[in-house]
Amino acid sequence: MNVDLKKKIIPVISGFMYAVCLVFGHSLEKEGSIAYRDGRLWLTILILGILLSAALTVIMKQLQKRLLPKGLEHETGQQIRQVPAGRMTFLYAGIIFLCYLIVFLGVYPGFFVYDAQDELMQVITRSFSTHHPLFHVLLMGGTVQLIHKLTGSYNAGIACYTLLQMAALSLIFGYGIRKLKEEGMGRRGGILLLAYFGGFPTIVMFSLCSAKDGLFTGMVLLMVLMLCAFFRDPAEFFQKKGHCACLFLSSCLMMLLRNNGFYAFFVFVVFLALLFLKAEWKPYRKKMLLLCAGAMLAFLVVNKGFALVLHADDSENQEILTVPIQQLARVYSMEGDTLTEQQKETLFEILPEEALKRYNPKVSDPVKVDFDNEAYEADKGKYRRLWSDLFREHPFGYLNAWFMTSYGFWYPGAVIDVYTGNTVFTFTYEGSSYFGYEVEEPGERKSLIPLVDRAYRFLSLDERAQEIPLLSLVLSPGAMFFLWTFVLCFFWYTGQDRKLWPFLFPGLLFLTVLLGPTYLVRYVVFLWVLLPVLLWELCRKSERKAAEK
């Protein structure tokens, strides 16, 4: 694409994307739907899009003058080499771990939540399913049950697993800081990152949470660090065998911890294969594709091996059919009188009427939990035809059903309140579902620092935390989406493709969560964890070697 044309188009694309997100998101937040036939809505998008496009044109032009070609001034990184690299990683990790330890004592034995009991019960009963990644079921559930067997206390088991995860993530974050310091980040930047990784609430919550999201995010961070190193200097990357091993292992573990990680990684590898058709990548094409293919193969073998050895039930379809299930439920709930008796009869075969009456626009769990997998497997074509027939009759209803479970990821003004009214083990959700917070049975919260416990309960469950102007923005997935897309569009605008490509993978991950059951922070924690790397790439000087290629 012509450079001048690209610099005109990118701010316009970005501006109108943000305009659509803001207008659609506001309508979904206030009305629960989008009035697609309302001309005023499209006029608002047009006006706002023009204003934002003009503003972004100026901002990107000024930012380019500020950062390019020389980039922000920073240290050369020589100081960090005065101390052995491994020692620095452990030093940073130790500081972060101590920060976590204070919160751990406040919320002892940790945050045992988000299907934690279900995963533990699979280990206790030896009855496994692939509903949750078996690697995490065995890791978390096995640790808790082992310590319980030794001590007689489930709290001790939960605490032990929490401490192990805290240590693992502290090491990963410490390694990340060390890598950025080696690339030239100054002392103040290192201190800021220690404070950020050790104290930012969203990161701390999931570092102390038994759910798979924390470890998954740690693996994604390692992957992106390795991808940045590869695209910066492929020859040097393959000279360092540790980098190759790190990318292989982190990719494999990432996929073992979340199934959507495999889908995103597969598409990413396809992108790499297309990119490597360029002659400049020929020396590295085979090595990189073999490395990535090996990681996917290892994942498939290990994952299938777990399922076979554990005789895990793999008959569930509702996770991958979350969006279609929610669309059918919305049409029945909102426009049920337009369905024929035959359509209703077919629908009830896979979704009982009682389940459809539990339709919640913001979360699919109440409906999909009763999805009849056996009926669906018996005649998939029949139910796919029902879905397509209703789509032709209710296209806007289908769009609203999907947007209502995903707009919190891309609208900064969204309040995370998807579980309002749901009663769990120790409380009933009211105005906020930002974080699960509790300790599910058989665990029990025994706070040793009540002030810390109250602070994290406020951030997790009190809607006021999502209404305080500045705090609400830094806690918002939608605000993170705006920031991320701005930086990535700036890389595109300035032709810094080698800075853009490493972040394609987390971008693909983001697209997969848009097809999930609801908008919860847990699905996009990587937006916060990877943010320092993204901003560092924005400010980092571009190597002459990369620019010349």
List strands and helices in order, with pairings:
Elements: H1 3-31, H2 39-67, H3 85-106, H4 116-125, H5 134-151, H6 154-182, H7 187-199, H8 201-207, H9 213-232, H10 234-239, H11 241-257, H12 259-275, H13 282-309, H14 322-335, H15 341-350, H16 353-356, H17 365-368, H18 373-378, H19 380-393, H20 395-404, H21 450-461, H22 469-474, H23 477-493, H24 497-500, H25 504-513, H26 526-529, H27 531-539, H28 544-548
Helix pairs in contact: 1-2, 1-23, 3-6, 3-7, 3-21, 4-5, 5-6, 6-7, 6-9, 9-11, 11-12, 11-13, 12-13, 12-25, 14-20, 19-20
Characterise this structure.
Among the domains are: 3-67, no CATH class; 322-405, no CATH class. It has 28 helices and no strands. The protein is an all-alpha fold and 549 residues long. Residues 72-81 and 544-549 have low confidence and may be disordered. The longest helix has 29 residues, at 3-31.
Secondary-structure-based class equals: mainly alpha
Percent in strands = under 5%
Whole-number mean pLDDT = 93
For the sheet with most strands, the description reads:
none
Secondary-structure element pattern, one letter each: HHHHHHHHHHHHHHHHHHHHHHHHHHHH
Distance between the termini: 17 Å
Portion of residues in helices?
Answer: 55-70%
Count of helix runs = 28
Low-confidence regions: 72-81, 544-549
Dominant shape: globular
Q: How many E strands?
A: 0
Radius of gyration: 24 Å
